[in-house]
Amino acid sequence: MQIIDLKLGQELYGIDIRYVNSIIVMQNITRVPKAQPYYLGVINLRGEVIPVMSLRRRLGLEDDVFTPSTRILILKPDDSSESVGLIVDEVNEVVTLEDDSIKKVNYDEKDEKAVFSAGIGKNGDELINILNVPAIVSEKNV
Fold first, then answer.
1. 2-137 CATH, one of 2.40.380.10, 2.40.50.100, 2.60.40.1220, 2.40.50.180
2. Where do the CheW-like domain residues begin and end (predicted)?
3. I need a labelling partner for 53 at 20 to 30 A (CA). Which of 36, 83, 91, 121 fits?
4. How many CB atoms lie within 10 A of CB 89?
5. Cβ of 129: how many Cβ atoms within 10 Å?
6. pLDDT by 10s per residue, the chain, length 142
7. What are phi and psi of 134, to 5 degrees?
8. Residue 11 and residue 114: Cα distance in Å, rounded?
Protein backbone atom coordinates (compact mmCIF):
# COMPACT_ATOMS: atom_id res chain seq x y z
CA MET A 1 0.00 0.00 0.00
CA GLN A 2 1.34 3.44 -0.88
CA ILE A 3 0.41 6.27 1.46
CA ILE A 4 1.08 9.98 1.69
CA ASP A 5 2.82 10.58 5.01
CA LEU A 6 1.53 13.78 6.66
CA LYS A 7 1.63 15.55 10.01
CA LEU A 8 -0.90 17.12 12.33
CA GLY A 9 1.15 18.65 15.11
CA GLN A 10 3.73 16.00 16.01
CA GLU A 11 1.51 13.06 15.05
CA LEU A 12 2.02 11.12 11.82
CA TYR A 13 -0.96 10.20 9.65
CA GLY A 14 -1.23 8.50 6.30
CA ILE A 15 -3.69 8.69 3.42
CA ASP A 16 -3.87 6.02 0.74
CA ILE A 17 -2.39 7.61 -2.39
CA ARG A 18 -5.26 6.39 -4.58
CA TYR A 19 -7.52 9.04 -2.96
CA VAL A 20 -5.12 11.95 -3.55
CA ASN A 21 -5.74 14.03 -6.67
CA SER A 22 -3.24 16.80 -5.91
CA ILE A 23 -1.48 18.69 -3.13
CA ILE A 24 -1.63 22.48 -3.17
CA VAL A 25 -0.31 25.28 -1.00
CA MET A 26 -2.71 26.98 1.37
CA GLN A 27 -4.89 29.62 -0.28
CA ASN A 28 -7.78 31.90 0.52
CA ILE A 29 -10.88 30.00 1.58
CA THR A 30 -14.33 31.52 1.05
CA ARG A 31 -16.51 30.83 4.07
CA VAL A 32 -19.89 29.19 3.58
CA PRO A 33 -22.65 30.03 6.08
CA LYS A 34 -24.25 27.23 8.11
CA ALA A 35 -21.65 24.62 7.06
CA GLN A 36 -20.45 21.91 9.45
CA PRO A 37 -17.90 23.34 11.95
CA TYR A 38 -15.06 21.33 10.39
CA TYR A 39 -15.73 22.78 6.92
CA LEU A 40 -13.80 26.02 6.58
CA GLY A 41 -15.39 26.94 3.24
CA VAL A 42 -14.63 26.51 -0.46
CA ILE A 43 -11.80 27.24 -2.87
CA ASN A 44 -11.73 27.69 -6.64
CA LEU A 45 -9.25 25.24 -8.12
CA ARG A 46 -8.91 25.46 -11.89
CA GLY A 47 -12.56 26.48 -12.25
CA GLU A 48 -13.89 23.81 -9.87
CA VAL A 49 -15.43 24.83 -6.53
CA ILE A 50 -14.05 22.48 -3.88
CA PRO A 51 -15.23 22.29 -0.25
CA VAL A 52 -12.32 22.41 2.21
CA MET A 53 -12.37 20.76 5.62
CA SER A 54 -9.99 20.99 8.54
CA LEU A 55 -8.65 17.51 9.32
CA ARG A 56 -7.76 18.76 12.80
CA ARG A 57 -11.36 19.81 13.54
CA ARG A 58 -12.76 16.65 11.95
CA LEU A 59 -10.61 14.50 14.24
CA GLY A 60 -11.52 16.58 17.30
CA LEU A 61 -8.07 18.17 17.68
CA GLU A 62 -7.21 21.80 18.41
CA ASP A 63 -7.73 24.38 15.64
CA ASP A 64 -5.40 24.80 12.69
CA VAL A 65 -2.41 27.12 12.81
CA PHE A 66 -1.48 27.99 9.24
CA THR A 67 2.27 27.97 8.48
CA PRO A 68 4.28 28.00 5.24
CA SER A 69 4.21 24.17 5.31
CA THR A 70 0.38 23.94 5.59
CA ARG A 71 -1.08 22.14 2.58
CA ILE A 72 -4.48 21.28 1.13
CA LEU A 73 -4.80 17.72 -0.14
CA ILE A 74 -7.40 17.46 -2.89
CA LEU A 75 -9.06 14.08 -2.37
CA LYS A 76 -11.52 12.08 -4.44
CA PRO A 77 -12.97 9.43 -2.09
CA ASP A 78 -14.50 7.41 -4.97
CA ASP A 79 -15.37 7.76 -8.64
CA SER A 80 -18.89 9.04 -8.04
CA SER A 81 -18.09 11.61 -5.36
CA GLU A 82 -17.01 15.23 -5.57
CA SER A 83 -13.48 16.32 -4.73
CA VAL A 84 -12.83 17.54 -1.18
CA GLY A 85 -9.93 19.59 0.17
CA LEU A 86 -8.32 18.48 3.44
CA ILE A 87 -6.09 20.91 5.35
CA VAL A 88 -3.02 19.32 6.95
CA ASP A 89 -0.03 20.83 8.78
CA GLU A 90 2.64 19.27 6.59
CA VAL A 91 3.05 16.69 3.82
CA ASN A 92 6.23 14.62 4.04
CA GLU A 93 6.57 11.90 1.41
CA VAL A 94 5.04 8.88 -0.25
CA VAL A 95 5.71 5.74 1.80
CA THR A 96 5.18 2.13 0.73
CA LEU A 97 3.88 -0.13 3.50
CA GLU A 98 3.72 -3.91 3.22
CA ASP A 99 0.40 -5.49 4.21
CA ASP A 100 2.01 -7.26 7.19
CA SER A 101 3.23 -3.92 8.59
CA ILE A 102 -0.35 -2.59 8.90
CA LYS A 103 -2.32 -3.58 11.98
CA LYS A 104 -6.04 -3.09 12.50
CA VAL A 105 -6.81 -1.50 15.84
CA ASN A 106 -9.78 -2.39 18.04
CA TYR A 107 -11.73 0.66 19.16
CA ASP A 108 -14.71 1.32 21.36
CA GLU A 109 -17.62 0.97 18.93
CA LYS A 110 -19.46 3.81 20.69
CA ASP A 111 -16.72 6.26 19.64
CA GLU A 112 -17.95 7.79 16.37
CA LYS A 113 -14.42 8.94 15.45
CA ALA A 114 -13.09 5.35 15.68
CA VAL A 115 -14.10 4.73 12.06
CA PHE A 116 -11.67 7.45 10.93
CA SER A 117 -8.68 5.10 11.37
CA ALA A 118 -8.11 2.28 8.90
CA GLY A 119 -5.19 0.92 10.94
CA ILE A 120 -1.68 1.65 12.17
CA GLY A 121 1.26 1.25 9.81
CA LYS A 122 4.84 0.68 10.87
CA ASN A 123 7.51 2.43 8.79
CA GLY A 124 10.92 1.81 10.36
CA ASP A 125 10.64 3.13 13.92
CA GLU A 126 7.64 5.34 13.14
CA LEU A 127 3.97 4.49 13.61
CA ILE A 128 1.56 6.05 11.12
CA ASN A 129 -2.19 6.28 11.74
CA ILE A 130 -3.71 5.42 8.36
CA LEU A 131 -6.89 7.42 7.79
CA ASN A 132 -10.13 6.04 6.41
CA VAL A 133 -10.80 8.74 3.80
CA PRO A 134 -14.38 7.73 2.86
CA ALA A 135 -15.40 7.82 6.56
CA ILE A 136 -13.73 11.19 7.14
CA VAL A 137 -15.44 12.94 4.22
CA SER A 138 -18.79 11.18 4.71
CA GLU A 139 -21.59 13.29 6.18
CA LYS A 140 -22.93 10.20 7.99
CA ASN A 141 -20.12 10.45 10.54
CA VAL A 142 -21.03 13.86 11.92
1. 2.40.50.180
2. 1-142
3. 121
4. 20
5. 17
6. 899 999 998 899 999 999 999 999 999 999 998 888 899 999 999 999 999 999 999 998 988 889 999 999 999 887 767 899 999 999 999 999 888 888 887 766 556 667 888 889 998 899 999 999 988 988 654 4
7. -55, -35
8. 17
The answer to whether the predicted template modeling score (pTM) of the entire model surpasses 0.85 is yes
Q: Are strands 90-96 and 84-88 parallel, antiparallel or unpaired?
A: unpaired
> What is the rounded CA–CA span in Å between residue 32 and residue 78?
24
Helix or strand run (H / E) with residue 137: helix 133-137
